[in-house]
C-alpha cells in the first residue's frame, strides 16, 4: 500500500510542477496560493478542562484560494475538524492535537488551492480519560463529543449568518457545506451527520450506573443531560454548561468525510442522512475499523465504549441509499480501483492497509497523514511550561502508531485522500470544474450514447453553436479536444481516444459561457 500511495503522490507532484491549462477546479490545485485569515471567533461557550467551566472564544483559521482571478463569487465551504483526543496537544501525551497540526494545515491549504474555502476550527476540549471509573471515563468523553458537535454546528450557522447579515465576507456557497474530520474530528463529523433524536443518546450503553454529581453524571440517567447542555444544535441548556450561539440559521451540511474516528451506534444511521466517505486504517488501535471498542490514546490506552468505525458506517450508509449520488457511477481512477479492491464492495470506503507495525505488531497504525518533528514538539512543550523531555515523550508516543512517519509519507496519504474524496464531492454536488464555468446541469445540452455504444452525441439548444469540446476523465486528465465545432450537434468517437467505461466530464464552450456535463459511459 505504501509503495502504491507514494507512486501516486509522486505522479501528482510531477503534474503539479508544470503549468496545466486543462486543470479542473476542485479536482486539481488550480490556484497557486492561499490567503489565510487567522483567529476568527465563531462562537463562545463553556469548556471544562479542570472541573470548572470557563467561557472561552472558539476560533478558526479560514483558508481562501488566491493568486489567480476567481470568477466564482460563492464557493463550497469545508469545515475541518482536527484530531487530539479532546485533550490539548502535549497535555494529551502526543505531538498532535490542534488546528496548527501539519496535516490540518496542509489539507486546508490543498482544499483552498482547489477552489474551496476551508475553515480549520477549534472546538471545546476536556474529559477525564484516566479515571478508574468507566462511567466517568465514558460519560465525560460522550459529553466532550456532544459539546464538539454543538460547536461545529455553531460554526456552520456562523457562516450562514455571515452570508445573511455581513455581505458574505468569505464568499461561501451556503448550499454546499462539507465536514472533514480527522481522528477525533472524525467522531465529530460522523456523529454530526446522524444525531437528531434524543432517544439516540438514551440507549442502554449511554445510561450511567454510577452517581458522580461532580461530573454531572447520575445513576439511571443518560450521560448527556440535554436540560443542562442544550439540544444537538446547542440551543437551550443553562450557564455554565451552554451558551447559545448564532441562532436563527440552519446547521445542515451536505457531506461528511471522516479520516478515522467512529460513530456511537449503527442505529443512528437512517435513510436521508447526508452522503459519507470514510478513510480508515484497518488496524487503528484507538477507533475500530468495524465494530469494537473505542480507545483514546492516553498512556496506557483506556477503553471507553463500543462504537462503529468506517467499515460499518459505510455499510449502513450505502444500505439506506444515502450514498446513491456516487455509488455505481463508474469511477475508474487508480484511487478508486485500489479502494474497491479491498473495501468489500462498499463504495465510499477506503481502507488503509499498512502491514504489520514494525515497532510493535500489536499496536497497529493511526494517522499516517500526520507528520511532526522532535525539535518542534520539544519547543511546543517548553512553550506550554514543560521540560523538553515532555516533548520527547509526546513525539515518541505518536511515533508508536505511525512508525514510518515523515512529511513525504504523510503527503502521499493526503494525496490519496484528496484524489478519492474530491471526484465524489464534484459529482454529487454538481460542482463546476472549469474556472469560467457557469453551469454543470444545464438542460440546454443533452448527451446520449449510440445504440452500439461506440460513440456519444452532444446536442445543444443554446442560441449559439458549440465552439469547442473537451472530454476529461473524473481526475481531470484531458482525453480529447475538438476545436472549431461550430455546430449544434457533435459526435465523439470513444474508440479513437481510448475512452473506457466510467465517469467522464464533457466541457462545451460557447460564445458566452461554458457548460460541463458529467456522463457515465457504459
Give a description of the structure:
The chain is an alpha/beta fold. The protein folds into 2 domains: 428 residues, Alpha/Beta hydrolase fold, catalytic domain (Rossmann fold, 3-Layer(aba) Sandwich); 77 residues, Sandwich (Immunoglobulin-like). The strands form 4 sheets. It has an 8-stranded mixed β-sheet with strand order 1-2-4-3-5-6-7-10, with helices on both faces. Strand 8 and strand 9 form a beta hairpin.
Highlighted features:
alpha/beta; Immunoglobulin-like; 2 domains; eight-stranded mixed β-sheet; four-stranded antiparallel β-sheet; 10 helices; 26% helix; disordered N terminus
Task: Please write out the topology.
Layout: H1 2-16, E1 33-47, E2 54-66, E3 75-81, H2 102-114, E4 117-121, H3 134-165, E5 172-182, H4 184-194, H5 226-229, E6 255-259, E7 276-281, E8 291-296, E9 302-308, H6 310-319, H7 334-340, E10 349-352, H8 374-383, H9 388-400, H10 407-429, E11 445-449, E12 455-460, E13 468-473, E14 478-482, E15 489-493, E16 502-509, E17 514-521
Parallel strand pairs: 3-4, 3-5, 5-6, 6-7, 7-10
Antiparallel strand pairs: 1-2, 2-4, 8-9, 11-12, 12-15, 13-14, 13-16, 16-17
Helix pairs in contact: 1-10, 3-4, 8-9
Amino acid at each position: 500500500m505504501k509503495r502504491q500511495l507514494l507512486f501516486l503522490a509522486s505522479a501528482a507532484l510531477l503534474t503539479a510542477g508544470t503549468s496545466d491549462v486543462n486543470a479542473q477546479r476542485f479536482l486539481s490545485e488550480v490556484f497557486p496560493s492561499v490567503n489565510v485569515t487567522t483567529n476568527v471567533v465563531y462562537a463562545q461557550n463553556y469548556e471544562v478542562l479542570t472541573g470548572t467551566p470557563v467561557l472561552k472564544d472558539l476560533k478558526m483559521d479560514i483558508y481562501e484560494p488566491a493568486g489567480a482571478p476567481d470568477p466564482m463569487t460563492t464557493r463550497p465551504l469545508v469545515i475541518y475538524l482536527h484530531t487530539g483526543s479532546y485533550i490539548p496537544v502535549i497535555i494529551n501525551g502526543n505531538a498532535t492535537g490542534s488546528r496548527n497540526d501539519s496535516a490540518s494545515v496542509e489539507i486546508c491549504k490543498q482544499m483552498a488551492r482547489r477552489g474551496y474555502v476551508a475553515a480549520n476550527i477549534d472546538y471545546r476540549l476536556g474529559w477525564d480519560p484516566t479515571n478508574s471509573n468507566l462511567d466517568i471515563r465514558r460519560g465525560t468523553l460522550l459529553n466532550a463529543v456532544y459539546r464538539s458537535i454543538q460547536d461545529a454546528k455553531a460554526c456552520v450557522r456562523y457562516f450562514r449568518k455571515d452570508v445573511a447579515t455581513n455581505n458574505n465576507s468569505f464568499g461561501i456557497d451556503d448550499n454546499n457545506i462539507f465536514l472533514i474530520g480527522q481522528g477525533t474530528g472524525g467522531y465529530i463529523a460522523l456523529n454530526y451527520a446522524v444525531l437528531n433524536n434524543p432517544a439516540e443518546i438514551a440507549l442502554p450503553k449511554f445510561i450511567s450506573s454510577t452517581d458522580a454529581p461532580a461530573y454531572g453524571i447520575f445513576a439511571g440517567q443518560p450521560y448527556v443531560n440535554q436540560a443542562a447542555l442544550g439540544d444537538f444544535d446547542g440551543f437551550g441548556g443553562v450557564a455554565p454548561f451552554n451558551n447559545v450561539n448564532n441562532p436563527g440559521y440552519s446547521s445542515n451540511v451536505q457531506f461528511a468525510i471522516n479520516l478515522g474516528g467512529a460513530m456511537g451506534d449503527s442505529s443512528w444511521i437512517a435513510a436521508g442522512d447526508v452522503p459519507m466517505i470514510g478513510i480508515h486504517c484497518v488496524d487503528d488501535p484507538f477507533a475500530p475499523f468495524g465494530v469494537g471498542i473505542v480507545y483514546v490514546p492516553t498512556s496506557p490506552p483506556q477503553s471507553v465504549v463500543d462504537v462503529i468505525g468506517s467499515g460499518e458506517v459505510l455499510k449502513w450508509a450505502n444500505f439506506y441509499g444515502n450514498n446513491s449520488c456516487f455509488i455505481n457511477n463508474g469511477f475508474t481512477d487508480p484511487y478508486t480501483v485500489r479502494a474497491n479492491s479491498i473495501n468489500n464492495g462498499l463504495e465510499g470506503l477506503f481502507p488503509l492497509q499498512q502491514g504489520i507495525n514494525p515497532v510493535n505488531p500489536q499496536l497497529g497504525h493511526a494517522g499516517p497523514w500526520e507528520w511532526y518533528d522532535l525539535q518542534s514538539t520539544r519547543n511546543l512543550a517548553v512553550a506550554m511550561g514543560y521540560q523538553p523531555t515532555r516533548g520527547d515523550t509526546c513525539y515518541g508516543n505518536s511515533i508508536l502508531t505511525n512508525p514510518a512517519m515523515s512529511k513525504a509519507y504523510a503527503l502521499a496519504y493526503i494525496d490519496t485522500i484528496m484524489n478519492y474524496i474530491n471526484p465524489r464531492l464534484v459529482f454529487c454536488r454538481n460542482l463546476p470544474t472549469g474556472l469560467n464555468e457557469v453551469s454543470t446541469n444545464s438542460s440546454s445540452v443533452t448527451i446520449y450514447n449510440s445504440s452500439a455504444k461506440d460513440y456519444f452525441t452532444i446536442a445543444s439548444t443554446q442560441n449559439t453553436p458549440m465552439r469547442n469540446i473537451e472530454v476529461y476523465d473524473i481526475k481531470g486528465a484531458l482525453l480529447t479536444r475538438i476545436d472549431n465545432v461550430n455546430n449544434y450537434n457533435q459526435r465523439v468517437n470513444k474508440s479513437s481516444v481510448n475512452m473506457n467505461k466510467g465517469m467522464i466530464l464533457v466541457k462545451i464552450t460557447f460564445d458566452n459561457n461554458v457548460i460541463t456535463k458529467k456522463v457515465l459511459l457504459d
